[in-house]
Amino acid sequence: MGSCYKDLIIWQKAMEVAKNVYVLVKKLPKDETYALSDQMRRAAVSIPSNIAEGQGRAYTRSFSQFLSIARGSALELETQLQLCVMIQYLSQEDIQPTMDLLEEIERMIHSIKLKL
C-alpha cells in the first residue's frame, strides 16, 4: 500500500462521479436544494473520501472497512439517481455516464477486497 491514494484508478473514477453529481444536481428543482441534492452530494463525496482514508490506513482490515463504506455510498447514490429519473428531475441519459462509473467502482471495490 505504498502508493498515494491519488494514484488509485478507483479514487480517480470516484472523483469523476463526485464531479458529475455536482453538475447533475444543478438540474434539480430549487426546492430540492437542501433535500435530495444535498444527500446526493454527500453520498458522492463519501465515495472518494472513504477510498482515500482507507488507503491511508496502515491496516488491510481497515482499508477493507472503508471500501465497504464507499460501496454503500455508491449504492445509495445509484438509488438517488434512479429516483431522480423516476420523478422526472433527470433523464436516463443524464445519469447513465455516472451510473456506468458507479458500477465500475463497485466491481473494482469487490476486486480489491478479494485481493486484500
Describe the structure.
With 116 residues, the chain is mostly helical. The protein has one domain: 23S rRNA-intervening sequence (de novo design (two linked rop proteins), Up-down Bundle). It is built from 4 helices and no strands. Helix 1 packs antiparallel against helix 4. The N and C termini lie close together (10 Å). The model has no long low-confidence stretch (mean pLDDT 94).
Q: So how many helices?
A: 4
Q: Which homologous superfamily in CATH is the superfamily?
A: 23S rRNA-intervening sequence
Give the percentage of residues in beta strands: under 5%
Q: Whole-number average pLDDT? A: 94
The CATH topology comes to de novo design (two linked rop proteins)
Helical residues, percent: over 70%
Low-confidence stretches: none
The biggest beta sheet reads: none
Determine Rg (CA atoms, Å).
Answer: 14 Å
CATH architecture classification name: Up-down Bundle
Q: Please count the beta strands (DSSP E, at least 2 residues each).
A: 0
The CATH class name reads Mainly Alpha
Order of helices and strands: HHHH
User: Structural class of the secondary structure composition?
Assistant: mainly alpha
Head-to-tail CA distance between termini: 10 Å
Number of domains: 1
Q: Describe the global form.
A: elongated
